[in-house]
Amino acid sequence: MHRILQGLFKALEAKGGKVKENDKRELLVEFQGEEIEFNLREKLKQVHRPLTAEEKRYSWNEKKSTKYDLMPTGNLVFSIKTYLPNKLQREWIESPERPM
Fold it and tell me: Which of 9-18, 20-29, 36-45, 52-61 has the lowest mean pLDDT?
C-alpha cells in the first residue's frame, strides 16, 4: 500500500499538486487552491464463524452459536471523498483481474 501511495504522491506532485493532511489526519491533494480528499484502504469482507468457548461464557451470547467478523481480503480500495459532479466514478476496487 505504501508503494502505491508513494507513486501516487509523486505523480500528483509532478502535475503541480501538493499532498497534505487535514485536521482529521486524512489525506488530500491541493491543486490550484482546490482540495480533493482521498482514501486508500484494504477491502474487508464479513465472515460468519463459530463462537469460541470464551465468547460463549458471556450472557449476551447464551443463545448464539456464531458471530460475524470482518476479515481483510488483500484487495485495495481507492476512494475520492470530495464531491465530484456529473456522477463521475469516485471509487476503484482492486481485484485479481484488475490489480491496482
Answer: 52-61
| The pLDDT of residue 7 is above 80 | yes
pTM of the predicted structure, to 2 decimals: 0.72
Decide if 67 contacts 95 (C-beta within 8 A).
no
For residue 41, give every residue at least 6 positions away whose Cβ sits within 8 Å of its Cβ, in sequence order, or none: 76, 77, 79
Give the integer Cα–Cα distance in Å for 77 and 57: 37
Give 20's strand partners: 28
Q: Supply φ then ψ for residue 94, to 5 degrees.
A: -70, 145
**Neighbour order of strands in the sheet with 27-31:** 18-21, 27-31, 34-50, 66-80, 91-93
Q: Where are the domains of the chain?
A: 2-93
**What is the band of 28 on the pLDDT scale with cuts at 50, 70, 90?**
very high
